[in-house]
Amino acid sequence: MNTRLPLKGVVLKFILIIRAVFLVMLLSTTLVFGAPLALADDIRDMQMPNEVASLRDLLEMVNKTHQGKILEVEMEQGDIDGKKKWVYEVKLLTRKGKVHELEYNAITLDLVKSEK
């Protein structure tokens, strides 16, 4: 007599139920938070121009014009004169221990914003 056959069926049903619960959780999270939809919109909107200044050029400029230690550099779309443009955001730790936030146009490396 083979007693494993019914047990195997139970295990398969259990696996199918777990998969179904996982899919329901995934779909409900997606519908509530909309992460995949928002991510797709962000990717579609984020078309970088070919002429973006290099990170090396940015770092050289920051080191020449400001004293301190660069903590972080991010590149994102920012608002410059009412238009969405690519900007470098730089966080700089000054010698006085304050964090100075700088924002540069990613194409021209013009300083757009400076916050202390």
Report on this model:
- It is a single chain.
- The protein is 45% helix and 30% strand.
- It is of the alpha+beta class and 116 residues long.
- Strands 1-2-3-4 form a four-stranded antiparallel β-sheet, covered by helices on one side.
- The longest helix is centred in the N-terminal third of the chain and has 30 residues, at 4-33.
- The radius of gyration is 25 Å and the shape is elongated.
- It starts with a helix and ends with a strand.
- The mean pLDDT is 77.
Feature tags:
3 helices, Nuclear Transport Factor 2, Chain: A, 4 strands, alpha+beta, 116 residues
What letter string, H or E per element, gives the SSE order?
A: HHHEEEE
Estimate nothing, just give the exact number of structural domains. 2
Spatial sequence of strands, sheet with the most strands: 1-2-3-4
Q: Uncertain runs with pLDDT below 50, 5 residues or more?
A: none
| General shape | elongated
Give the distance, in angstroms, between the N- and C-terminal Cα atoms: 80 Å
Please, how many helices? 3
Q: Which CATH-level-2 architecture of the largest domain?
A: Roll
In short:
By secondary structure, the protein is of the alpha+beta class. The chain has three helices and four strands; from the N terminus they run H-H-H-E-E-E-E. It is elongated and about 75 Å long.
SSE order and pairing:
Blueprint: H1 4-33, H2 35-45, H3 55-65, E1 69-80, E2 83-93, E3 99-105, E4 111-115
Antiparallel strand pairs: 1-2, 2-3, 3-4
